[in-house]
Design brief:
alpha+beta, four-stranded antiparallel beta sheet, 31% helix
C-alpha cells in the first residue's frame, strides 16, 4: 500500500458537527491535539469553499480518538455547541443504512417501480406509471 493508504488504514476518525462557518483546520488541530497525535484534519467544504459545518480529526491511536470524543462532546467552539462522534460511534453507525436496505422489501417483481419513493404510486406490472 501507498503511504496515504497505510495512513488511512491506521487512522481513527473523530467526526465534529455543528461547526461555525469560520472554524478552520488549524482551529480543529489546536483544539484536538491535547488528546494525542493527529494524522490529519479536515473541514468539509462545498465547491465554493464554504464550510459544510462539519469536519474530521484523524488520530494515530484509537484511544486518543475516543478520549477526544468524550472530552470534546458538547463543548462550545466560537460560540457554537459542537457535536462529536468517536470511532466507536462511527463504526456502530456504519452499515446501518446498508443493513436497512438489505431488510427492505423488494417490490420490483410486483410493480413497474425500480425503487420506492414515498408518495409515488406504481401500477402492478402493466408497464405504465400512475400520474398524480
Amino acid at each position: 500500500p501507498t503511504s496515504a493508504e497505510s495512513m488511512a488504514a491506521s487512522s481513527f476518525p473523530v467526526w465534529i458537527g455543528s461547526l461555525p462557518e469560520q472554524v478552520t483546520e488549524s482551529d480543529l488541530q489546536e483544539l484536538f491535539e491535547p488528546f494525542g497525535t493527529i494524522s490529519s484534519v479536515s473541514v468539509m467544504r462545498d465547491e465554493r469553499g464554504n464550510s459544510k459545518h462539519f469536519g474530521y480529526v484523524n488520530y494515530v491511536k484509537k484511544s486518543s480518538a475516543e478520549l477526544a470524543a468524550r472530552n470534546m462532546k458538547g463543548r462550545t467552539v466560537k460560540s457554537s455547541r459542537i457535536k462529536v462522534k468517536g470511532p466507536r460511534e462511527l463504526e456502530s453507525n456504519y452499515g446501518k443504512s446498508r443493513q436497512a436496505a438489505k431488510n427492505a422489501p423488494d417490490y420490483r417483481p410486483f410493480t413497474d417501480c425500480d425503487f420506492y419513493i414515498s408518495g409515488k404510486e406504481c401500477n402492478p406490472k402493466t408497464g405504465r406509471k400512475i400520474r398524480t
